[in-house]
Design brief:
The complex is a heterodimer. By secondary structure, chain A is α/β, with parallel strands linked by helices. Chain A folds into 2 domains: 25-147 and 283-377, 3-Layer(aba) Sandwich (Rossmann fold), CATH 3.40.50; 150-279 and 393-398, Response regulator (Rossmann fold). Chain A is built from 15 helices and 14 strands. In chain A, the strands form 4 sheets. In chain A, strands 5, 6, 7, 8, 9, 12, 13 and 14 form an 8-stranded mixed sheet that branches. The radius of gyration of chain A is 23 Å and the shape is globular. Chain B is mostly helical. Chain B has a single domain, classed as ABC transporter involved in vitamin B12 uptake, BtuC, CATH 1.10.3470. Chain B is 72% helix and 0% strand. Chain B has 12 helices and no strands. Chain B has helices spanning 2-32, 39-61, 68-94, 102-124, 141-147, 153-175, 177-187, 189-194, 199-225, 234-245, 250-270, 283-294. The longest helix of chain B is centred in the first third of the chain and has 31 residues, at 2-32. The chains are: A alpha/beta, B mainly alpha. Chains A and B meet through helix 2, strand 6, helix 8 and helix 9 of A and helix 1, helix 4, helix 9 and helix 11 of B.
Chain lengths: 437, 308
């Protein structure tokens, strides 16, 4: 009798569990985050914002098309080897495997570039990674979304032009992190210098960049009209402090978007006032999407940020942008492959390739002006090419421009040229986009 | 010529800051023969603890934020924390390893560095913080106006502070009873023990003093670049200084720092452009390597002769 009861109870529990599993489909997202080590401040802000947005979607909307978002973090410490380890650890998790891989590291991006095609997982690199991967014909699995480094560099020159007028005879110094990342804008700036008649002096700063005395003494000798700061981590506040020390006006310094966060300016103190930096997202907590996160997510004590005052900072908002794009890619893929079930990485790749987040959609999402409109295609995995500029007023970032368009014609030509070369080296036959749906 | 002088002076001043970090290594190596890999982590821990206290003290005590009282109270608390860390290191890590080969002690300090970094971020968080010591990092006007040479007032202050610290420590080692005991322990642990020198006390004192030096270095570097994980990288700047100056010499740290600071800046400016720039990170190591070939014990290090 006892045995019969136990069997029946077991069957009931198993049945309930099975029904539960059938009812609640879950979309798994593996997050190769970094919350310790040298770049923890950036990693905790971006992944924190991303997680908060996914929590918002789950709590407010009940998930995406009835599918709950679930995630797991894997600590990379911004280290390539650990990044690859995390990729392998996460790729088969969840009902359908990992939906996307977004390591926030150009080094890890390069390390898994070939793997993602084999495993059919979209590699999403928003604002970093390999620029020529914007040519989706050669890189179908890679999405350097919104704006690439090359596009950004052209908007920097446009910004300087808007301040100086004709750039003929002007001198611009590029103070760059001595790495592949720092060298990304060289070719674009050289080409623009030749076109517009300005000179560009490139000065390298060795990693980590916590000592820049000699570089800034050289800059003092050169007496440039502008300095473009292409830094990362401690290199940024050190540059701002050194600029103050050598008397170079911060109002004539323009930073890349990895130089333009609170983590770059606050340590520099008063030396950062007047510094302007690029961004594919803006700072601020007054956007409806951020207000919703505060109300719904933090209201239920589900917030991911240990320090809630960071909600609305540049890095945090960048994480929210990552979340918005991921959710919209899943939503788009559901339109084609069906709602209410977990999709595969291959299906979500299609979603990324057919994104259309226009102004109307951004307004619906509570993110109008928060990030630029985004429209991707088989040909174009960048999707926007727009940049806004923000200046540090001593306490916070203030948006000082509207979205500035990149010189798309020039950048696209360079992207296709570079991608074609890559395809030839790797023996890749580019996709025929006219046959893609 | 003016530019050359500017680069040279700037380099010398930077070198003093490297020496400040190198000093922590020297103190511990001198007393225990341990190359303390965790010195960079200690600099980070010290600065983060100081800034952390300046943030929480106003809330705890009702004192005015950013005031002098909070500053000095935070300094004292950070110093106490460093001494506690030093004593704990001696008790938990070093004491069980007495008379073990140097490589064992070295490996223990590698583990210690990860632990200290983790504890620091675990307690105070990974946020990047600013640190103002009240000394502006701007050029000295007189030098700019009369000689058109740029010298930072902050760097000059830091150099003076480092000079005072080095001088005090050199005197301490040379002329005090504890200093003599430290040197005895450094020469031979067992011999020092046999004549009644309390090894554990000496080590605790040394780790405490190294903690104090780490705090000063952390404050200076933190004020320059912000208080963040990258402070641990300052140790990388100290290694060539140690090779040049000798691992056991306090004045050697300062002389090594000056040589490394000046030479890396001059190399970056005058050689860098011909090789693509960014040579500051490896040039000091090349210099130190060349130096090792000529004088392995460093400029002021003790020559080690073994009977065979």
């Amino acid at each position: 009798m006892e045995f019969k009861k136990t069997v029946m109870l077991g069957a009931l529990v198993a049945g309930t569990l099975a029904a539960g599993v059938a009812m609640a489909a879950e979309q798994f997202i593996g997050l190769p985050s970094y919350r310790v080590g040298a770049y923890a401040a950036g990693g905790s802000g971006i992944y924190g914002g991303w997680i908060d947005y996914m929590n918002l979607i789950n709590e407010r909307d009940g998930g995406v098309g009835g599918v709950k978002l679930v995630w797991e973090e894997c600590e990379t410490e911004y280290n390539n080897a650990r990044g690859v380890e995390c990729y392998e650890r996460l790729k088969n998790k969840g009902e359908t495997g990992n939906s996307m891989f977004s390591p926030l590291s150009t080094g890890i991006t390069y390390s898994v570039l070939d793997k993602v095609a084999d495993d059919k997982i979209p590699l999403v690199t928003i604002g970093y990674g390999r620029t020529d991967a914007a040519d989706g014909r050669v890189f179908p699995w890679v999405f350097p979304l919104i704006t690439t480094y090359w596009s950004q560099a052209t908007t920097m020159i446009k910004y300087i032009e808007s301040k100086e007028g004709d750039l003929k005879g002007k001198k611009i110094v590029l103070l760059y992190h001595d790495s592949a990342y720092g060298k990304e804008p060289h070719a674009v700036l050289d080409r623009m210098a030749a076109d517009k008649g300005f000179t560009v002096e490139k000065i390298a700063v060795a990693h980590p960049g916590n000592e820049q005395q000699s570089q800034w003494l050289q800059i003092r000798q050169i007496r440039p009209d502008w300095v473009i700061l292409w830094g990362w981590g401690v290199m940024n506040p050190t540059a701002l402090k050194a600029a103050a020390k050598t008397g170079f006006p911060r109002t004539k310094m323009l930073g890349v978007w990895w130089s333009g966060a609170e983590e770059d300016t606050i340590p520099a103190g008063s030396a950062a006032k007047g510094f302007t930096a690029a961004g594919f997202n803006v700072a601020g907590a007054d956007y409806p999407v951020i207000k919703d996160i505060k109300k719904v997510v933090y209201g239920k004590s589900l917030g991911n940020m240990e320090d809630e005052s960071r909600v609305g900072s540049v890095y945090y908002n960048r994480g929210v942008v990552h979340g918005i794009i991921a959710v919209e890619a899943i939503r788009k893929a559901q339109e084609k492959y069906g709602k209410g079930k977990a999709l595969t990485g291959e299906q979500i790749r299609w979603g990324y390739e057919n994104l259309n987040i226009d102004d109307k959609k951004l307004a619906e999402l509570g993110a109008a002006g928060f990030m630029p409109p985004l429209k991707t295609s088989c040909m174009d995995h960048e999707g926007s090419g727009k940049v806004k500029y923000q200046s540090w007023d001593g306490a916070k970032w203030q948006v000082v421009t509207d979205w500035i368009d990149a010189d798309k014609q020039m950048v696209r030509g360079m992207i296709e040229e570079s991608a074609a070369k890559y395809a030839q080296e790797k023996g890749i036959t580019p996709r025929d986009c006219s046959k893609e749906m | 010529m003016q530019f050359f002088l500017e680069v040279l002076i700037g380099g010398l001043l930077s070198g003093v800051l490297y020496a400040l970090v190198a000093l922590g290594f020297v103190l511990i190596f001198k007393a225990s023969g341990v190359f303390n890999f965790a010195q960079g982590a200690m600099v980070f821990f010290a600065a983060l603890t100081f800034v952390g206290f300046t943030e929480v003290l106003p809330g705890w005590t009702g004192l005015a934020e950013g005031g002098a009282v909070v500053f000095w109270l935070a300094f004292v608390l950070a110093l106490v924390s460093m001494v506690v860390l030093g004593i704990a290191t001696e008790k938990i890590v070093l004491r069980p390893l007495v008379n073990q080969p140097p490589i064992t002690l070295f490996m223990a300090t590698i583990g210690l560095s990860y632990l200290v970094e983790g504890i620091a971020q675990g307690i105070w968080g990974a946020n990047v913080r600013g640190l103002e010591l009240g000394i502006e990092d701007v050029p000295i006007e007189y030098m700019m106006e009369h000689h058109n040479i740029l010298i930072s007032s902050f760097d000059l202050f830091a150099a003076a502070l480092a000079g005072v610290l080095v001088g005090s420590l050199a005197l301490f080692f040379q002329y005090t009873k504890v200093g003599r005991a430290l040197r005895a322990v450094a020469d031979d642990h067992q011999a020092a023990l046999s004549i009644g020198i309390p090894l554990q006390h000496i080590w605790a004192i040394v780790w405490g003093v190294a903690g104090f030096v780490a705090l000063v270095a952390g404050l200076i570097w933190g004020a320059r670049n912000g208080v963040q994980f990258a402070l641990t990288f300052t140790a990388l700047k100290a290694l060539p200084v140690l090779i040049l100056g000798g691992f056991t010499s306090v004045p050697g740290a300062i002389v090594g720092g000056l040589i490394i600071g000046a030479s890396e800046k001059l190399a970056e400016v005058y050689v860098g452009p011909f090789v693509g720039g960014g040579i500051e990170s490896w040039f000091p190591y090349v210099l130190a390597l060349l130096f090792l070939l000529v004088r392995p014990e460093g400029l002021f290090g003790e020559r080690h002769i073994d009977r065979v």
